[in-house]
Amino acid sequence: QCWAPPGSDFHCDVSVFTGSFSQLVLTQPPSASASLGQTAKLTCTLSSGYNSYWVAWYQQSPGKSPRFVMRVGTSGIVGSKGDGIPDRFSGSGSGLDRYLTIQNIQEEDENVYYCGANYGTVTQAERK
């Protein structure tokens, strides 16, 4: 979850979200922070050997279901962003890392962000 106390930085608590498909594991750092108006870069790391896979990023507001943001592979966004996702949100990838970048952070970006991986035709993930 992200928040911005008056006069201080914009903080994000990023929930660890792992998906298991045999040996595929996703790892997110426990938190990230950025000031309002600045840029936040969230990371989802695939386990070794899965560098060609894409991940799906999700955004969840309190009391609501996760909302699809975008799929991200090694070369960036795969397909289209989710409905209503602003242009301030972008994706990129490098090696085993898949990034969700939020530019010009706004108060409405205060959410929990998850990543999930695609394996074949199934997208599955487990909140831990």
UniProtKB/TrEMBL annotation:
It holds the Pfam family V-set. InterPro entries: Ig-like_dom, Ig-like_dom_sf, Ig-like_fold, Ig_sub, Ig_V-set, IgV_Light_Chain. Residues 22-128 form the Ig-like domain. Gene3D superfamilies: Immunoglobulins (2.60.40.10). It comes from the Eukaryota. This is Ig-like domain-containing protein. It comes from Spermophilus dauricus.
